[in-house]
């Protein structure tokens, strides 16, 4: 879908494209396409044709633009857009300086109206979620190492500027003052899941256990999302394969970038880990390698801190206990988020243009309809069995 450019001009890119202050940029053409699978803002890929200093060569560069959605306003209403703007502007540069590695895309223009970001795809990064494939063990390990460094860097930055990290990590959804807005969404997700699995012969024995849990999970989410745990870190908050891009050499992963920092929270790192594993990693990988995955995270996190002469390391027994006690996060993520990530392009159409009132309505919430998708029907019974074996359910 091609849109008009009445809100952006060639002058927007003249400063962005300069290699140095003396360059004269002549922008010849700007075109853009609206990208799919963006529910909280408008996301575009922009192509700019230009010359530098009257040279003959015409160069084409591409960028990603994020812009407020004029109809879907809940991202702005809940401060998600301002949070991401703040993190791109002040947070990521500080985290990256600690570990000496890039964590997200480069930024070129950041203001209240739009963000111009590096087009990672033009630099040979790829998003596996576009193929609807859950991650294998090798991809999982690379993400675990990078998010461990992200988390560890936030511990270092917190010691230097605690107010700044607290601002980055202010909870968006799961807080007491928003009980009236989100509590019903959480309960409805578990209720609809219970109703759906009651028709699945291999999973119907878990129906009542999930119904029994639905009232408690909101309180647990509220508790765990706000400065909970032995060691608190800045969580990405939406750590799924949708928001992770990989670069290859050409077979092995050589680099990773995270995108979409609208839901960051300052709390226990197991929130990110549970969410990531239960939305993005093949369940067979989790079942076969969970202990190794947690050890890899722990060793990378602690190693990164010790390199910075920081002693706020995680104790293995405390870390594993926190992870086990947070299994409810994984179950909730698998109920309300996993259906979106497994949906194909035709199925995901139902999410376009949805407003917050529809998300609050259990009869209209399009995510709940995605629980009936064939792929979810295959994956979710295995996840339920995994949690049963971890004694999350009392049947």
CATH class value of the largest domain: Alpha Beta
Mean pLDDT, to the nearest integer, reads 89
- Radius of gyration, CA atoms, in whole angstroms: 22 Å
What is the strand tally? Answer: 10
The CATH architecture of the largest domain can be named as Alpha-Beta Complex
Query: Which range best describes the helical content: under 10%, 10-25%, 25-40%, 40-55%, 55-70% or over 70%?
Result: 40-55%
Give keywords.
395 residues, alpha+beta, Double Stranded RNA Binding Domain, Aminoglycoside 3'-phosphotransferase, Chain: A, domain 2, 2 domains, 3-stranded antiparallel β-sheet, 48% helix, 15% strand, globular
Q: What can you see in these coordinates?
A:
It comes from Clastoptera arizonana. The structure is a single chain. The chain contains 16 helices and 10 strands. The chain is globular and about 70 Å long. With 395 residues, it is α+β, with helices and mostly antiparallel strands. Strand 8 and strand 9 form a beta hairpin.
